[in-house]
Amino acid sequence: MARAILWLLAFSPAAAGALLVAQHGVNVPVAGDWDRAGLVNGGLDPSPLGERIAIPRLVALANLRWFGNDLTLEMGLAYVLVLATAFCVYGLLRRTLAREDGTLYGTAFLCNLLLFLPMQWENFLWAERAWFLFPSAAVCASLLALGSRWLVWQKFAACALLATAASLTAPHGLSLWVLVFASGALGGAFGSGRARLGFLAVWAALTAAALTAHGLGVARPVDLSAAPALEQPLEVLRFSATLLGSPFSRTTLVPPGQLAPLFGLLGMALFVAGAAYGGRRWCDAAFRDRRLPWLLLGGYALGLSVLAALGPDAGERGRPLLPRYTSISLFLWLASLPLSVLAVLDLRTRVPASRRGLRALLEWGPAFAAGALLVSVGLGWLVGIQGMGEWRSARLQARTSLVFLERFAPGDLRRVDGRPGASLAELRRAVGILQGGGYLDLARADGEGLEPFALGAPLPAEAGNVERVRAREGRLDLTGFAWLPHANRRADGVLLTARDASGSRRVIALAELRPMPLPPIPEHDHIYNHARTPGVDETAAWRALVPSDRLPRAASVQLEAFAVDSDAMRLHPLAARVVVHPTAAGLSAELRRPENGGTR
Q1: Can you give the pTM of this predicted structure?
Q2: Alpha helix (H) ranges present in 116-232?
Q3: pLDDT tens, residue by residue, 322-334
Q4: Does position 524 have pLDDT exceeding 60, yes or no?
Q5: Rounded CA gap, 220 and 232, in Å?
């Protein structure tokens, strides 16, 4: 019973992760998700999704055909992949720390805190990014299989299947071929030298075939030809260290771009120290096999960080801080944990009782280190949950833009689309294809009225209002803020309406909120570092520019503003009204506030 409770506590971060993904996932496409419009008629033809490789394309097609392109299902798949990784890591920990129950479950808890860190919200909440997580799960599963009591051919078959799937899933999946070879060469998972040599020879041949197929374009190649960092090794180190330290860099007032490299260098030092400890005991097969999986996992994270530094993203300073890369950097820290625990356990058996100072350090030092890690990761969870909320808000705002896409062009197309070089015409075409086939969860506004929204309760003045209106250069410039208290988030847009001659409301403008989190949210340095906590009126600010030709022709026109809740498809009126009068010079406008009966 006690072990069951400890196991549940160790996997409690997994339960929290499931709730967060379910709460923040929104079935609205972004960036590469729009490429599925090419699959509606293209089927398995690789041309519609030329930038994708086989397995993600097959899953996208299956989702289109059988589940109506419900993107939240693939977000759930991302969570399942992380959960599978957590189970594999726990299996590896049991082999490493089997004799220390309390240490086993405590280490498993810290590992799960890292694996389910909400900081990687892009991978959890962006459907096409789910497969970015598969290679890491395959690496852990392969290491678990190699250390099992299976027959050699069973280990080979499992690893070959996982490596092939990883290679057909994401470019960095090719690393699994190298890791399995290293594990087979260094580990003691084979009963005889002949079995080891046979395994490695056949595996080397398969690795060469996989790399050849990769080079011929069966999988998307990694282009390192334009890598200026090759001539700047310090820049490679800076980029890699920033990527590896990113998970812990947004928890203080120091800008993450300055703090992340320091944490990354610390993580590298911890891993190198843990790897170097016990080097003299490398010939001890039992001791070596307990450490080898973690050495390979840490090497996997280091290698991928260097490849990222040599890739096309290396020239952009903010790129290593992208949330998607957190799923790589976490494995350096995750590998360092059991290596450090093994070192401490081994030292405790070797330090004599007479050396009380060192014994006390070995007793209490790990507890303080675990506490510091717990605090740092806990703060990372808080920032990550905030990032998930920003992502959900961005996708709901994108849904509002999509509802009115035929009438109003988004202020920044990247917020709705995000594909390099995408155009409004291309986006409208993709929306038409997906919606026409029933593959897009979207109610479009066909007319100029408020359909398809229902009217909800008015917002209180402290939650939303029109703050200022100015008439200049033949147009109206309106600003304000809109917060949805019932949902505890900014509104998903603000609709401005005018009464026409018949007295019915006509939508004349769609205002977007500022600041707008842009997928893939490239400006983490000043958005998520908690350097300041803005008020509601600043966080949920909006602005609308209304040309005069959109206004009804009348002696005076009354404008109303509605905060949009696109999750519930409701509109919440703002209290203030704007009255516009045509003049010889153009327009004049006054802001009326019903709460005090005055004008401004």
Answers
A1: 0.89
A2: 121-125, 134-146, 152-167, 175-186, 193-215
A3: 888 888 999 999 9
A4: no
A5: 26
